[in-house]
Amino acid sequence: xxxxxxxxxxxxxxxxxxxxxxxxxxxxxxxxxxxxxxxxxxxxxxxxxxxxxxxxxxxxxxxxxxxxxxxxxxxxxxxxxxxxxxxxxxxxxxxxxxxxxxxxxxxxxxxxxxxxxxxxxxxxxxxxxxxxxxxxxxxxxxxxxxxxxxxxxxxxxxxxxxxxxxxxxxxxxxxxxxxxxxxxxxxxxxxxxxxxxxxxxxxxxxxxxxxxxxxxxxxxxxxxxxxxxxxxxxxxxxxxxxxxxxxxxxxxxxxxxxxxxxxxxxxxxxxxxxxxxxxxxxxxxxxxxxxxxxxxxxxxxxxxxxxxxxxxxxxxxxxxxxxxxxxxxxxxxxxxxxxxxxxxxxxxxxxxxxxxxxxxxxxxxxxxxxxxxxxxxxxxxxxxxxxxxxxxxxxxxxxxxxxxxxxxxxxxxxxxxxxxxxxxxxxxxxxxxxxx
Amino acid sequence: xxxxxxxxxxxxxxxxxxxxxxxxxxxxxxxxxxxxxxxxxxxxxxxxxxxxxxxxxxxxxxxxxxxxxxxxxxxxxxxxxxxxxxxxxxxxxxxxxxxxxxxxxxxxxxxxxxxxxxxxxxxxxxxxxxxxxxxxxxxxxxxxxxxxxxxxxxxxxxxxxxxxxxxxxxxxxxxxxxxxxxxx
Lengths: 436, 184
Prior knowledge:
Strand content of chain B: 5-15%
Strand order of the largest sheet of chain B: 1-4-2-3
Number of domains of chain A: 2
CATH superfamily of the largest domain in chain A: TolB, C-terminal domain
CATH class of the largest domain in chain B: Alpha Beta
Strand content of chain A: 35-45%
Oligomer: heterodimer
Number of strands of chain B: 4
CATH superfamily of the largest domain in chain B: OmpA-like domain
CATH architecture of the largest domain in chain A: 6 Propeller
Number of helices of chain A: 4
CATH architecture of the largest domain in chain B: 2-Layer Sandwich
Shape of chain A: globular
Order of helices and strands of chain B: EHEHEHE
Largest interface: A-B, 52 and 35 residues
Number of domains of chain B: 2
Structural class of chain A: mainly beta
Radius of gyration of chain B: 17 Å
Structural class of chain B: alpha+beta
Largest sheet of chain B: 4 strands, mixed
Number of strands of chain A: 31
Helix content of chain A: 10-25%
CATH class of the largest domain in chain A: Mainly Beta
Number of helices of chain B: 3
């Protein structure tokens, strides 16, 4: 690298650091990869534009996305035999020798308008055939999303499963001030941790963020004014409504799949019960009626039933009820404590917090055959949230190092840790698929 | 862009230190309340420094406000619970009943009962558990003669721990209800 180029790289790093000092980026570390992850060659995208370096390293973003899925093992740029941008420059034999069944190449071009043209192609190396490719235009702020959309296309083409790289996550961080005061921040970021934005900053606790199905709002619980209320906030404008501020508890909001209702927990009638709030009319429908604690409702993807936590049997367990109320069916019978269930997007499984022998872990229950599977081996796990394609579960975990997020694939084979320096991170919520 | 939310100050009041003998020590120190907030809330730490004195007569009996008598059960403001339980422990009954009798005798006094839980398990369930604990204390107080009008409850679940460790002792200290006097 020439010394001029090195100078530019350093300047960009500092500029990046200054921008990030405003909000700390969620950093993701893969702690366990899948055995047999498929090698893939992704060449850096060719860049044509006024600056020496591209504004977004598209090839790097794609490689990081595919690596994070645990199913692919991108070859480091330094180990590629060449860095072709165009099909005519590809020597397929070199890549056959490298051993990667697939190759991704592309270009990023700055246009006179100030917008950018992005082009990519995915090849089957052995047959030298193009499997897919596209060319599109985007503005500068849209470029990272374009990279994630390309990752989704590649992932779906090669695995048959829809990709979830063009998604976002919400999470809460807690920071301590010099005077020992606490600051709670609800943020959203891209699912690779980049691009964090503050949704709410408060000196009172914030919890239970829940995405609306159209991805445009978040419901959450805030203890502003020393009592819990449920708010729904429009993410684009920052405007919000307090939709539930009854005496006692207002908690555990969960949007219905059609976005018209919110299941929630209220204790205004004497003890915590599940209710459904019709958001527009404000009509409240009571679902449970039991002196036990009933809380943490979550909708099935078909909108027909709710699962929830109840300790009516003595210890917290998961129950299911029709969305309109009725007979409640107990679902969990193993372990000493089962709570905070959510449905997998396919509707055939739930994930929840399961305690056995003192350790609180994330487990799944197959609703068809009753099989329970413990996915984590830590001791203080909570708040599971599925990726919208059902491939990974994001959750919060605590240990001697502090509180951070983690992710595990639904077969337990891939694990990641996500953290923000010097802050406790928790309460993750994975967004629905984004509409382009 | 960051959404500017009003910042609510945590009101710092140290009930054990503040005296309210008529006119002798001046007004109780409170930080600004959140605009529109109904309840005040105490955290750890002092709002400022206040010195309190008490006379000692020849018999050595405490002279001062009963809530500040270190030998009285009223000086004890925290009761503890077993894991996942809201049952009041036998040794705490006397403390709760002492506060209830104080409330019954001082009808302008009022308290907030703050319920808490340790970090294990899930957050919303823990908020419900904290509420159940606060309600258990409230129920014993009203049975002992305090009026329900004098008692408010709130639960923070696991959100406001006093001990940060991931061990049995920290968990024990966090499974609590705090009796916080809003007015004496």
